[in-house]
């Protein structure tokens, strides 16, 4: 499997988290949101629109909206400092899909083939090393298949991946439910399984948890503060984000935009993020996307 170049923006967003804190003694911490990439711009804009203008300032503390793809890119490129965890916001449920007339009648049929012939099961999704690829790695791990030899092709967008799947270039695709729902509704694609802990209304497919893969997965988005964020600033930012994610205006925005709220704040989010980082690192290694021969000069303990 060839390792590809990854979007520099994701890494830049994490790198810029260092050194963006406010000066000591500032009477009232104020903030501004930036997106760690184009995918997170709508979230950053929505948060900016919902926060009280009195809490916003262009010379305030930078709060970066980022997510799982940036975390994976940072792991692969050995970015050490990632920022201060503040809040997990939303997550996209992913689905495993096949063409309507696929030989894989259900998830069990796909799982049996993946375990028996992982290198001969053509898989497709978005870019290599990002959320869709990670999901296939987690599924392989849960089933006991050899993730290192998976035949995975990554594409820039879900639309490109769908075209490849329907053209017969792959047997199974992974991606966010929201971006596959129209093709599923048209009957062009069937869902083998969903990545959420619970079944999804309107989708006739089991969860990966109940299918034996033991995977609970979302393509999440979150807010991080700068590395040098003071405790007072952090506490204020967490309080403001807590107010936002509990508000009806935020919940309405999520409904309109098709986002699934999965709020987790402050220290609880920090603990979860540590676990998620460890899981991501493990799967990337099993997919052959991490250099495991690193010596003392490596960043972040790798």
Short recap of the structure:
The protein has 302 residues and is an alpha/beta fold. It has helices at 8-15, 41-50, 68-76, 107-116, 131-143, 158-166, 177-185, 231-246, 248-257, 266-286; strands spanning 31-35, 61-67, 84-99, 122-126, 151-155, 172-176, 189-194, 218-225, 260-265. Helix 1 crosses helix 3, helix 3 crosses helix 10 (266-286) and helix 5 (131-143) crosses helix 10.
The CATH class assignment of the largest domain is: Alpha Beta
Mean pLDDT: 89
Strand content: 15-25%
By DSSP, the count of extended strands is 9
Might you state the CATH topology name of the largest domain? D-Maltodextrin-Binding Protein, domain 2
Describe this structure in words.
The chain has 302 residues and is of the alpha/beta class. It folds into 2 domains: 8-91 and 220-301, Bordetella uptake gene, domain 1 (D-Maltodextrin-Binding Protein, domain 2, 3-Layer(aba) Sandwich); 92-194, Periplasmic binding protein-like II (D-Maltodextrin-Binding Protein, domain 2), CATH 3.40.190.10. 38% of the residues lie in helices and 21% in strands. The chain has helices at residues 8-15, 41-50, 68-76, 107-116, 131-143, 158-166, 177-185, 231-246, 248-257, 266-286; strands at residues 31-35, 61-67, 84-99, 122-126, 151-155, 172-176, 189-194, 218-225, 260-265. Strands 1, 2, 3, 4, 5, 6, 7, 8 and 9 form a 9-stranded mixed β-sheet that branches. Belongs to the UPF0065 (bug) family.
């Amino acid at each position: 499997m060839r390792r590809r170049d990854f979007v520099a923006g994701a890494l830049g967003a994490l790198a810029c988290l260092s050194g963006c804190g406010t000066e000591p003694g500032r009477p009232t911490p104020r903030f501004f949101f930036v997106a760690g990439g184009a995918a997170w711009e709508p979230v950053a804009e929505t948060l900016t629109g919902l926060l009280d203008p009195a809490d916003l300032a262009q010379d305030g503390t930078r709060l970066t909206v980022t997510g799982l793809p940036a975390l994976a890119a940072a792991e692969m490129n050995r970015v050490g400092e990632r920022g201060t965890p503040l809040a997990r916001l939303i997550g996209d449920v992913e689905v495993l899909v096949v063409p309507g007339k696929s030989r894989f009648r259900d998830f069990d049929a796909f799982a049996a083939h993946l375990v028996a012939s992982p290198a001969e099961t053509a898989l497709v999704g978005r870019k290599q090393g990002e959320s869709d690829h990670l999901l296939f790695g987690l599924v392989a791990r849960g089933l006991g298949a050899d993730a290192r030899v998976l035949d995975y092709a990554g594409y820039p967008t879900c639309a490109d991946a769908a075209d490849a799947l329907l053209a017969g270039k792959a047997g199974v695709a992974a991606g966010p439910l929201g971006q596959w729902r129209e093709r599923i509704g048209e009957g062009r694609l069937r869902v083998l399984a969903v990545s959420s802990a619970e079944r999804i209304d309107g989708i006739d497919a089991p969860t990966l948890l109940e299918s034996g893969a033991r995977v609970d997965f979302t393509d999440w988005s979150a807010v991080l503060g700068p590395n040098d964020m003071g405790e007072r600033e952090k506490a204020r930012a967490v309080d403001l984000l807590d107010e936002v994610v509990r508000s009806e205006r935020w919940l309405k925005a999520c409904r309109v935009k098709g986002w699934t709220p999965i709020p987790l704040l402050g220290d609880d989010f920090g603990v979860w993020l540590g676990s998620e980082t460890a899981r991501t690192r493990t799967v990337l290694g099993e997919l052959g996307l991490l250099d495991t021969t690193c010596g003392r000069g490596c960043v972040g303990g790798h």
